Amino acid sequence: MARFLWLNWSGGGNLPPSLGIARVLTDCGHEVAFAGRPEMVGRVRDAGFRALELEQSYAQLDRYPDGPTARMACYLTSPAVVDEVRRTIAAERPDMLLVDAMFPAGLQAAADAGLPSIAFFHHFLFRLRDEWNATGARLNAMRVQAGFAPLPPLAQLWQHCDRLVVTALGRFDVPSDPGWATVRHVGPVLEDERCALPPALPWSDDPARPLVLVSFSTAPEQRSQEKIQRSLDALAPAAVRVVVTTGGVVDPDELSLPPNAFAVRYAQHDPILQRASLLITHGGHGTLMRALKHGVPAIVMPGMAHDQAPNGRMLQELGAGIALAPDADPAVIRAAASTIVSTPSYAERARILSRDLAGADGAARAATEIESLLSLHIGGPHV
Fold this sequence. Notes:
Elements: E1 3-7, H1 15-27, E2 31-36, H2 38-46, E3 50-53, H3 70-77, H4 79-92, E4 96-100, H5 104-113, E5 117-121, H6 129-145, H7 154-158, E6 163-166, E7 183-185, E8 211-215, H8 225-235, E9 241-245, E10 261-264, H9 269-273, E11 276-281, H10 285-293, E12 298-300, H11 308-317, E13 321-323, H12 330-342, H13 344-357, H14 362-377
Parallel strand pairs: 1-2, 1-4, 2-3, 4-5, 5-6, 6-7, 8-9, 8-11, 9-10, 11-12, 12-13
Helix pairs in contact: 1-14, 3-6, 4-5, 8-12, 10-13
């Protein structure tokens, strides 16, 4: 048995796949603990894993420039977090570190520890090279504005890790770079958190009234009440039925629901997508891959995360969706929804793409990569 410490950024699209991989490792007899910001703790414990709260997550927040991303930047980059992660690693004495690629403070502490380590990318790597660089530069600039010396660029921090595991299909992550020999594409990890239960929808299937799923980010930094409401207003007069999942960051009571809509905080998306004709979403990698797995086209209205707008453009280029501006008004959303529902090619292209995702088990393949690296360093069985 090996002991793994996961240095985590609990963004909406980052924690669920991390939990999925951890579950496979646990089933194989290993121990996985997660260290992260306070918002992570309850979600990790609910999933059945040990959670270590980084109490210094926001200790230096008052030094960071005000704005919607200040808390995020403080947690991801502040010296107080780097130091606490170092102490946590020393106290936990893990055999290997698993680090979110979006967590510069964790990556720096992992580099200092000198333990075997893997950085995890829960969306594309090569397709988003420019966006990764820009995000790393913005975070570093906020750290400098807070009065601290900059951390190394993200790409440099990644190179300290023994492997870079991308939970995306390599087929979609183009152009690839043969110079990055440590990169492994394992495919998406479509894990449901335990708070997500099968939904009891108030309607039976009706071919004359297509089902539309509306789901935006579950990250507090990307709270999307306005986008949800504009989507509801757009679909109110349409001959469709609408399911909204708010992910706990929007209370269903905050929404004005038309008669053709039903809202719930959490729900498993697979049972809904099995019946759905359309998804309206922020464009997070996991949500889009889950929709494509079921052959469901999508409308993407991106949020602030650096992968969402490129994901929307990719989906549109593939013919399986329409990319809209984040502030698209109800009339524009209604027109896009009408186009997708009434044009068979969108669903046909989504069904074709679903073949690439059929049978893909990113969690198992990621666990295999972890155990493979483990065997090189300390010896151990493969999954």
